[in-house]
Amino acid sequence: MVSRGPAQRSGVLEGDVIVGYGDQPISGIDQLHRVLTENQVGLRSSLTVIRKGERRVLPIVPEESHIHLPRS
C-alpha cells in the first residue's frame, strides 16, 4: 500500500482483504488492477474489505499511479 495513497486515505489497513470494488466482487489482485484501470480514476466508489472477520465498506476515489512496478 502506498503511504498516503488513495487506499490508505480511504481507511484500508494492512491485513485487510479486498473482496469488492463498487458492486463487483474481487477475487484477487489481478482482477482489482483490471477494474481500477478501466476508466476508474477520479470516480467515487467503494472498496469492500474483510477486517478481522468483519465486512466493511470504505469510500474511495482512485487516482492515477505514478509508481512503476517491475513486471515479473
Summarize the structure.
The chain is α+β, with helices and mostly antiparallel strands and 72 residues long. The protein is built from two helices and four strands, in the order αββαββ. A hairpin with a 2-residue loop joins strand 3 and strand 4.
Describe this structure in words.
With 72 residues, the chain is α+β, with helices and mostly antiparallel strands. It has one domain (6-60): Pdz3 Domain. It contains 2 helices and 4 strands; from the N terminus they run αββαββ. The protein has helices at residues 6-10, 29-37, and strands at 17-21, 24-25, 45-51, 54-60. Strands 2-1-3-4 form a 4-stranded antiparallel β-sheet.
* Poorly predicted ranges: none
Level-2 CATH architecture: Roll
Strand content: 25-35%
From N to C, what is the helix and strand string?
HEEHEE
The CATH H-level superfamily is: PDZ domain
CATH fold-level name: Pdz3 Domain
Helix content: 10-25%
The radius of gyration is 12 Å
- N-C termini distance: 18 Å
Question: Class by helix and strand content?
Answer: alpha+beta
Number of domains: 1
- Tally of helical runs: 2
Mean pLDDT: 80
Q: What is the tally of beta strands?
A: 4
CATH class category name: Mainly Beta
Shape: globular
Summarize the main sheet: 4 strands, antiparallel
- The main sheet orders its strands as 2-1-3-4
